[in-house]
Amino acid sequence: MPPVIQRVAYAQVSTNDTWQVQLRYSITSSGGPCLSEDWFKKWTSYSTNWAYLKALDGAMTAEQIIVRAGVKDEFGDFTYAIQGLRGTVSFDKDMMTVQLQQPRVLPSGAVHGYAPYYLNGTYQIVRQ
Questions:
Q1: 46: three-class secondary structure by DSSP
Q2: Contacts of residue 37, Cβ cutoff 8 Å, sequence gap at least 6
Q3: Contact 36/51 with Cβ under 8 angstroms?
Q4: Rg (Cα) of the chain, in Å, rounded?
């Protein structure tokens, strides 16, 4: 199933006067090994991507921002930058529109075209 995107993005000033914007989503899955008791169970996992931007106004190209995915918790920062993004992130008042594409990477490591970034869309910005 595709991710369910939370359409509110939380923004806070990070180091070096950079804004950190949280893009939150959830994925619901089901199933398990055949003929197991878990076969019909469903579970939902919650995740966050972080976009790092210099400002929350105007429009920026993918080259001007950093998007990180992974896990950031009390044990540490285990995130990684999503490489090769292209497109834009733009702002209008308290709204942010993400229109990015990410490379399709083959098992060989070669890039074979681009796919829409899975958290594209319009978000309401809440400044913290």
A1: strand
A2: none
A3: no
A4: 17
Phi, psi of 122 (to 5 degrees): -110, 135
For 67, counting Cβ atoms within 10 Å of its Cβ (0-12 exposed, 13-18 middle, 19+ buried), the class is buried
Tens-place pLDDT, residues 46-94: 899 999 999 999 999 999 999 999 887 888 888 999 999 999 999 999 9
Q: What pTM value is reported for the model?
A: 0.85
In a domain, 81, yes or no: yes
Q: How many domains does the chain have?
A: 1
Helices and strands: H and E segment counts in the chain: 0, 11
Beta bridge partners of 46: 26
Please give the Cα distance from 27 to 98 (Å, whole number). 19
Domain of residue 21 covers 4-26+44-127
- State the Cα–Cα distance between residues 94 and 60, nearest whole angstrom: 16
The torsion defined by the Cα of 5, 100, 52 and 110, in degrees rounded to 10, comes to: 110
